[in-house]
Amino acid sequence: MNSFWNNLEKPIYALAPLAGITNSPFRMVCKEYGADVLYSEMTSADGLHFKSKKTLAMLKFNKKEKPVVIQLFGKDPEKFKTAAKIVEESGADGIDINFGCPARKVVAHGGGVNLMKNLDLCYDIIKATCDNTSLPVSIKIRTSIQDEDKKITALDFLKKISDLPVQVVMIHGRSYEQGFKKEIDYKIIKKARKYFKGIILANGGVVDSKSAKKTLRKTKADGLGLARGLFGKPWFFNELKTGFNPDWPEIKKIILKHANYSYNALGDHGIIEMRKHLLWYVKGLKNAKSLRKELVKVETINDIKKALKNT
Ligand SMILES: Cc1cc2nc3c(=O)[nH]c(=O)nc-3n(C[C@H](O)[C@H](O)[C@H](O)COP(=O)(O)O)c2cc1C
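Predict the joint structure of the above. Result:
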């Protein structure tokens, strides 16, 4: 199948989906600093099916971000049928399906990682999506989940869906039970190659060039999904590709660029959305305590400029 994924140079560096973070402005900055492919925040398939305004707004993107992959979550194959069509109409480049989210509000409704306990349902969701779009479909899974006395692994998952035209799998190298902490299981990601013929992206714990190299070496994956390593460092892609290492004056320019994108896309709310990013951006700065106090209150681009002026 012809798709943009096959034209990406390896290793592929993807912006992994992050709810509340990988919105259009953040994706724009990541793209400018080297991201090869950008996943959206998880987007409700039910929300799209019922044409919720808030959910439809999450499909907005700037052409400069392309290739953009919209990640869907949900548990009803019927909803994925409509959602897949709506995503395709939005002009996005791909559809990803979330089988890895441990957030209580998602799991409580049987979605996210909980779906890994019901591989028949996972199969039906993926099939419903693939049958209703010409866009490349990818999936995001975890290494395993424990279901009473049975452990269901990423390998079981990939075996189950082997006849479906899924092009990419991003494997978060932690089990559901591990949450976001502890060691990454590189071995299972490496083993996935035996069961999956498409592109494999390894995810989890990549925070610098050393961990990136280690993950690629140990998993033999085609690329990496970067997530929390990007907090306050959206240029991480270029750090890995070219050794880009901006000094503070350069970082301030990146911050203001990000703030402008955020304001242009979301208005005043875009500045509120920036606050958490601002705290991440200044994390390494000395004597940042009073600066942080100012940054958590910013309401305008000028407030941000004022706060950063003497840094
Ligand atoms: C705040 C936050 C939001 C996340 N949102 C999503 C999401 O919407 N969809 C998803 O598949 N994973 C989501 N994840 C998981 C990440 O994509 C990634 O798998 C995880 O953070 C492990 O990678 P890391 O160790 O590099 O951060 C989220 C993680 C965090 C910390």
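Residues 248-309 form one domain.
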